[in-house]
Each structure stands twice: as structure tokens, then as C-alpha cells.
Amino acid sequence: MGYVDEGRADNVKEAINLSISEMRYEQEVMQRNRMYSAVQNVNANARRAAVFSGIAAAASIFGALSSSD
């Protein structure tokens, strides 16, 4: 009753190790995707800030030119 098939035990260990490796890979991919999304959000926010600051600068220049008349 205590007999263990060594070959089968090795196959089970290999399958478990493969599953663990696959799970780790999936976690790494998800983490990379989250980091990529965060960078994209930062880039988009920086672009918006640049546009708004450009509009504000143009408005202040236009306002200064208009008031000097």
C-alpha cells in the first residue's frame, strides 16, 4: 500500500512546477501591463497639462496685448 510510482511522482512534480512557472509568468505579464498603463496615463496627463499651460500662456499673452491698446 505504501508503494509510490517514481515516474508518476516525477510527472506530478513537473506538472506542479510548470503550473507554478505559468502562474508566475502570468503575474509578471499582468504587472508589466499595469506599469505600462500607469506610464501611458502619466504621459496622457503630461500632454494635457502641456496643452492647458500653452492655452493659459496664449491667453495671458493675448490679454496683455489687448490691454495695452
SS-based class: mainly alpha
Shape: rod-shaped
Order of helices and strands: H
Largest sheet: none
Quote the average pLDDT: 87
Strand content: under 5%
Spans where pLDDT lies below 50 across 5 or more residues: none
Count the domains: 1
Oligomer: single chain
> How many H/I helical runs?
1
Distance between the termini: 103 Å
Backbone CA Rg: 30 Å
Number of strands: 0
Percent of residues in helices: over 70%
In words, what does this structure look like?
- This protein has one domain.
- It has one helix spanning 6-67.
- By secondary structure, the protein is mainly alpha-helical.
- It is 90% helix and 0% strand.
- The protein has 1 helix and no strands.
Quick rundown:
The protein has one helix at residues 6-67. It has 69 residues and is mainly alpha-helical. It starts with 5 loop residues before the first helix and ends with a helix.
Give the topology:
Layout: H1 6-67
Q: Could you name the key traits of this structure?
A:
69 residues, single chain, 90% helix, mainly alpha
